[in-house]
Structure formats: C-alpha cells, structure tokens
Design goal:
32 helices; 5-stranded parallel beta sheet; 13 strands; 6-stranded parallel beta sheet; alpha/beta; Rossmann fold; elongated; 5 domains
Length: about 750
C-alpha cells in the first residue's frame, strides 16, 4: 500500500477550520489517518497540486457540512469529485458531517450524514466514531468548538452578547486573521485590538462574529456599550454584580471602575468588547492601563492609537455578491453587481437593500429602479434589518455630527460635489481665497489646513489614499450631504470658480496633462449636478467654459467621443446664453470640426468650420487672426482629402491675414508655413517643401527657442525632407547657411 495513502481527506470551508481540526484530531486519536489542509499543506507549496494529491491519496472523503460549505464555489469541486467515485453511496466514500443547522439539498440530500449539530462534545465524538472504524494515533487535539452550536446559547462561556449570531455574516477573513494574529502574538500592546471605520461598515458585526467564532478561547465575554461614560459604567456595574463583587444599589462610579479593573487584573481568559467607543483615549479612566488579556474596541475614530489598529472598509466585490446572494436569496450575478456598485459596496446599505428585497419579494433590478426614483428615501427604512437599529442614512448623519470644526464641515460640503475617488487637495489648498470663511482662513495657513483635513479623516468621512495624493468620499455619504445642503446653492457657486481657475489643458505640457486628468472626473461630477441648477447667464457661461476645456483636453488626449460630448454641451449653452453669432460660439464650432477631422469625418469637419467661418467673418471681420485660424483649419481638411489646390488656396488666405496683422515673424505665421510645406511634401515636391520648412524653423527658433515642441517638430520635418530632396551638402553645414 502506498505509504502516503490515508483514510480520510477532510474538506471544509475556512470559516469551519476549527471543526475540521477537531474532527481530524478525534479520528487520528482513534487510529485513522487524515489529510487536512490546516496541517498538511505547507507554505510555499502548490495548493491545487496538494489538493489533488490529497484527494487521490485518500480512501474516503469527509465534507464538513455547513451553509458556508454549501455556498462555497471552491468546496464544490472537491466533494463533486468524491461523489463521482461512489454515486450510489455503496462504498460510503463520501461522508457528510453536519456541524450547523443546514438542510442538505441536491446531491447531498440523498446521503446520510453524521449529525454533530447541537450536541455536546462527548455525544459528538461518539457519533463521529460510530460512523467510522477506530484505531489509535495521537495528534494535537484542539478544544471542542462549542461556539458553533447556535441553538444552545448556554454552550457559550459566561457572556452578555447583545445579538444572536448573524447567519448572513459574509467575508472579512483577512480582518479576523489580523485580530487573531494580534491576540496570539504575545505582544502586550496588541492585546487591545481597535477596529476603526465609518458608520455602517460593519465594525459591530465583526466584533460580534469574532466573539461567537472564538468563544471557546474564553471563560468570560462581556459586551460594553461604550458611546458614553454612563453606558460604560452601567455595563461595568452589571458585570460586577454578576461576578458578585458589588451590590445592585452601588452608585459610586470610582468604586465600580476599580472593582472591574481589579477583576480584570486577577483573572484570565476573558474578552471585553467596547462597542462604539468614539471618545476613548489612553487616559480614559475606565480602560485598564496594563491589559494582559483580550480587549476589542470598535470606533469611528481612525486616529485612535491605544492598541493595534485595524481599519475596515466597504465590502470587496466578491464579498458583496456573496452577501447579497445569501441574504436576499437571489443568484443573479450581473444585477447583484450593479446593485452593489450603485450602493458603493457599503455593508449596511447592502443589508438594508437585501432585507427590503427579501421582505417585498422583488428583484435586484426592481430595487435599483426604486432607488433611482426615490433615492435616499428607500434607505431610510430599516424593516427586517439584522442587528442594526439605525438606517444607513441615520448612521452616516451621526458621523457628520462628530465634526467639531466648522471649516471641516464646509470642506466636506464642497467635496460632496466631487467624484468619489482621488479628490485633489491641491484644488483647495492652492485656491484658498475662493473659499468661504472660516475655511478660507484655515486653508491659507499650512498648519491649520492639516487640522481641517484631519478632522474629516478622523471619522472616516474622507479617506486618505495610499499614494498620499488625494482623498476618497463614499458616494452614499455624498448623497446624504447633498440632501442636507440641497436648498443652499452657495456650495456649488463656490465650486464653480474653483474649477474655472484650476481646470485647463496646455498642449505638450505633461504636468498640465496630468492635472487635467486628475480634475476631469471631478469637473464632470460637478457639472452633472450644477448645469441644470446654476441657471444665471454668468454661471452658465462659466459652465460652458468648463465643458469647452473638457472637449479641448479630451481631443488632444485622443478621447474623441468624450471631446465631442463636452463640446456639444458647451455649444448648446453658448448658443443660448451668448447667441449663435458670438465669437465663443464660433470657437466651439471650430474646435468640434477639428475632432471630426481627427475621426476622418471630413464632410462634418468642413461643415462645422464653415459655421465658424461665417460667424467670424461677420462679427470679427475678414482680416481678423481668428478668421485666419478657420481658413488654416479648413485648409488642413482639404489637405487630408488630397485636394492640394484647395488646401494651398485656403492656406494662402490664412497666410495673407497672419502676415498683414501679426507679421511675417510671428509663430502663427510660421505654423502656416509648416502646413504649406506638408502640402508640397505630399506632392513629392521636396525642394519647395524644404524651402517652407526652413522659413518655419527660423521663426520658431527665434521666437520660441530650441527646446520648444514646435521648434523640435519643425527641425525633424526639415531634416527628413532634406534627406529626400537630393541635396549632397552636409545637413549641418547647409542648416547653418540657411539660418544665418
């Protein structure tokens, strides 16, 4: 027999690891050999190969049966493979061991399972061993995981847990790993674990799940509502009375605290959970100063530094989908993802949505439709929600009330009009004069501005990004803030000049390009709200300018559809506010035509250039530089269509105006020289092309300098054309003669 052959392969979901280890220990203590991931898969190994080897080298297969196991997409292939080896269960190769209140369905429904749910350890061991043979090999055997016997609360240690275990709890595995690692590393500082995050992220639910999942480690678990000193004292007093250390009528707060702290110092194997301890500090009188056991704190205060800090965030995509499927009972990945994304993967918002869907028997799509029609009103309801007394709206409003500094609150109002991610702090830091007081004065002072931002990150209303270059704000919080300030237009009116001053695009300037890309999502988010609300002509023209800059930047970055969309909005506003014959309206027409040309739609390009030319000739005159711009632009379209005669005609019209109005040495005049050179180049008349390239290069070099992008491009064009012109003289020597 193969020496690696073993009696059982034990398959389990990671949530049920302790059960799997207990089952393996019982079997091995009684003579069986087992493959179990927790003991046999070593770091650095190949998980897939290890799993395949364990399955092949095991006589029989034990499935540790729980709802988590049945729901797991990773466990299913394991037991399915075992099932195919013995589909009729004649050899009893697949043995389910039920450890929670789950009713097997599908293929599992026809297989008799060993039932360990809801019984004591001795009975569980007897039932397990009665289902298999017995031998005697000893291996480490952990304590029996009684925490999982949900129907027998008395099996928990001495406790006052305020909620039953949430059967829909999903994910957060890395957080539990961090908590356990902290408690088990022997470091005194990490005996206090602090879970931080904004309201509704699931801090309380994580603490509760930890208590149930690891209850077997403790003799005492005590839950303390820590919102205020009064609620802590009440919890402490109740504990001291239960421990028979104080009488019920004791009112002396110092004595109550001293009694509990004394009990803590003289006892072991206890877990105290301080929930919603937003005002706790290292000097808090009721907190043990030399803690040697386990304390778990939940708080909105991200700056709390009294223990090992564990920051939590919204659900990951996979966690959100798994939760919705489990909680709402509907498997519809595409629409579940749409709902999760719309709610920003916020745990409490998803709990409310799933509860509503389940109660009213509707689909994810129907709920999304309700949300789009009624907005936050849908999330103000808490019917059927598990272990939450407040809605997501009320919970986030509590966080807003934590802001003590008016300047920070005003900053949050302005940030609510930005895109949720990558909020650029420099937008506010560099434009403090445009902000309302007292934010204006605070942001003008480098030291004080840090306090303004810090107040918002403290309670996770804003989150500093890992790259340190910006902040994020949850979209539901943004909507709650909008709702709060919706009747006051001044906050949008403050945002408008901020963007008007900062949003720009300089062609060829990398720093300008990067800034444009950082600000573009925020300008778009702002315009989506402000365009239909800020209706004064002056405001509308500033809005049109922002759209125009968006079109210009997107055009030169190659995002043509976005460019046309932005220019289209600008055009509608300018025709309405400024009129159809205004020079700025003409500019938008002209720039839209350039995009059409880039897309190869030459007919549309000439049509829109024609609109611009008609306005400019009428309003500005036939010898205005802007009129010449349009002639030049139209000429490039003719050139692209290989209509070289018309191209030279229109370049000639432009050149005549530039030379007369701007002079023969102006860079705009040089640009036309370059364009004419390209026409001759395309006609293979390299001699004439070179002549015009030289004219352009001389002007660019003289007026803009050697390092300017236009000068560099002119030089490259000239050098390339020279190589094709048939000249035999050395290029450098020839060039020196040309530019004397």
């Amino acid at each position: 027999m193969n020496k690696d052959k073993r009696d059982f392969f034990i398959s389990y979901n990671k949530t049920d690891k302790q059960w799997a280890e207990w089952i393996a220990a019982v079997l091995e203590q009684n003579g069986y050999s087992c493959y179990i991931q927790a003991w046999d898969f070593r770091p650095g190994g190949n998980f897939v190969l290890d799993m395949d080897n364990a399955s092949v080298q095991s006589e029989r297969f034990i499935a540790v049966l729980s709802q988590n196991y049945l729901d797991s997409k990773y466990c299913q292939p394991e037991w399915a493979s075992a099932f195919t080896k013995d589909p009729n269960s004649e050899k009893r190769l697949l043995i389910p061991v039920r450890i929670s209140d789950v009713k097997p369905e599908g293929l599992f429904a026809g297989i008799v399972y060993i039932d360990l749910f809801g019984v004591g350890e001795n009975i569980a061991e007897e039932r397990l061993l009665n289902g298999v043979d017995k031998k005697d090999i000893l291996r480490h055997r952990p304590s029996y995981p009684e925490t999982l016997k949900a129907s027998f609360p008395s099996s928990l240690p001495f406790n006052n847990l305020p909620f039953i275990r949430n059967k829909y709890f999903t994910g957060r595995d890395s957080i539990f790993e961090d908590i356990c690692a902290g408690f088990e590393n022997g470091n005194v500082n990490s005996q206090t674990q602090v879970i931080t995050g904004t309201g509704g992220f699931g801090k309380t639910q994580i603490a509760l799940e930890y208590a149930y999942r690891h209850a077997n480690k403790y003799d005492y678990i005590w839950w303390i509502q820590a919102e205020t000193e009064a609620t802590v004292l009440m919890s402490y007093k109740n504990f001291a009375v239960k421990m028979k250390r104080l009488n019920r009528d004791q009112q002396d707060s110092e004595l109550i605290i001293e009694t509990v702290l004394s009990w803590m110092s003289s006892n072991s194997k206890w877990l105290f959970i301080y929930d919603n301890a937003d005002n706790i500090t290292g000097d808090t009188a009721w907190l043990p100063k030399n803690n040697h056991e386990n304390i778990l704190i939940t708080t909105r205060d991200a700056h709390n530094d009294i223990g090992n800090i564990i920051h939590i965030d919204v659900f990951k995509e996979e966690e959100a989908i798994d939760f919705l499927e489990k909680r709402a009972g509907i498997k519809d990945f595409p629409n579940a993802l749409k709902l999760a994304d719309r709610l920003g993967f916020h745990p409490l918002a998803l709990e409310q949505a799933a509860a509503y869907i389940k109660i009213h028997k509707i689909t994810y799509t129907e709920y999304l439709s309700l949300f789009e029609d009624y907005g936050l009103k849908v999330l103000e309801k808490v019917d059927g929600v598990i272990n939450y007394k407040d809605s997501i709206v009320a919970t986030l409003e509590i966080s807003l009330k934590k802001i003590e500094q008016e300047a920070s609150l005003l900053l949050l109002y302005l940030c609510s009009y930005m895109a949720p991610e990558n909020i650029d702090e420099m937008l506010f830091n560099e434009n403090s004069t445009l902000l309302p007081s007292p934010l204006k004065e605070m942001m003008a002072d480098r030291l004080k501005r840090n306090d303004v931002w810090s107040q918002l990150t403290r309670y996770s209303l804003l989150k500093k990004q890992e790259d340190g270059k910006g902040y994020s704000m949850h979209r539901l919080l943004q909507e709650i803030v909008w709702n709060k300030i919706s009747n006051d237009l001044q906050w949008m009116q403050y945002c408008l000049p901020l963007f008007r001053k900062s949003y720009d695009f300089e062609y060829g300037n990398i720093e300008s390009h990067n800034r444009f890309l950082r600000l573009a999502p925020h300008v778009e988010a702002f315009l989506n709200v402000a365009t239909s609300i800020l209706t004064a002509d002056e405001e509308q023209e500033k809005i049109a300018y922002l759209y125009h800059i968006g079109g210009f930047g997107n055009h030169h970055l190659g995002n043509y559809s976005n460019a046309l969309e932005c220019y289209g909005y600008a055009l509608v506003i300018r025709e309405k506010v400024l009129g159809k014959e205004h020079p700025r309206t003409a500019r938008t027409y002209d720039n839209m035509a350039k995009v059409f040309r880039e897309q190869g739609d030459y007919g549309k390009a000439l049509e829109y250039h024609g609109y611009a030319l008609a306005i400019r000739e009428k309003v500005l005159g036939k010898e205005h530089p802007n009129t010449a711009d349009t002639y030049n632009n139209m000429a490039t379209v003719f050139r692209d269509q290989d209509d070289y005669d018309k191209a030279l005609d229109y370049f000639g019209y432009a050149l005549a105006i530039y030379e007369k109005v701007l002079g023969e040495e102006h860079p705009d005049t040089a640009t036309v020289y370059s364009n004419i050179a390209v026409v001759f180049y395309n006609q293979s008349d390299y001699s004439k092309a070179l002549e015009w390239h030289v004219r352009a290069f001389r002007i660019f070099l003289s007026k803009l300098g050697l390092e300017n992008p236009k000068t560099k491009i002119a030089f490259e064009n000239m050098a390339h054309t020279y190589s094709l012109s048939g000249n035999t003289i050395d290029f450098e020597k020839w060039l020196k003669e040309q530019i004397k």
